[in-house]
Amino acid sequence: MAKSLMIVDDSATMRKIIMRTVRMSGLEFDRTEEAGNGNEALEKLGGGPVDIMLCDINMPEMSGTELVKEVRKLDSCADMRIIMVSTESSQELIDGVVADGANGYITKPFTPEKFQEKLTPFMN
Questions:
Q1: How far apart are CA 2 and CA 24, in angstroms?
Q2: How far apart are CA 15 and CA 113, in angstroms?
Q3: For residue 122, how many other CB atoms are within 10 A of its CB?
Q4: At CA 105, angle to CA 32 and CA 72, rounded to 5?
Q5: CA 53, 59, 65 angle in degrees (round to 5)?
Q6: Helix (H, G, I), strand (E, B) or coil at 89
């Protein structure tokens, strides 16, 4: 089944590192997109949803936590899986973003194995 991925992070370098690490995990996506902040991600999602979003928390204009809340309001994105990828590791923050609609959380630094573990359940 064709899968699509969006990486949302304000650092272009970090988006490239995440993409490379996802590829190293052995997971394959037919379409990948990038966004530099939550507003840009929402704009791109207006053109059609993606299957999986990897999203940072700390970004200018619209944080990852705000983006999760906004995406969950969109009927077109009801089945989209959102995995947060952040240096933030407070259990309270993680619990909050999961309660807001995120499907998982990966803390930086990450490994290909961590992406494989968190994303494989959503690849079918």
A1: 19
A2: 18
A3: 17
A4: 70
A5: 60
A6: coil
- For 53-77, give the DSSP string: EEE-S--SSS-HHHHHHHHTT-GGG
Q: CA 84, CA 57: separation in Å to the nearest integer?
A: 7
Beta bridge partners of 111: none
Separation in Å, CA 73 to CA 19, 68, 121 = 27, 9, 23
Cα 55 to Cα 48, 52, 68, 82, distances in angstroms: 17, 10, 9, 7
pLDDT in tens, 10-48: 999 999 999 999 999 999 999 999 999 999 999 999 988
The pLDDT tens digits of the residues spanning 90-123 come to 999 999 999 999 999 999 999 999 999 999 999 8
Domains annotated for the chain, with CATH where assigned, are 4-122 (3.40.50.2300)
Tokens of 114: 């961590």
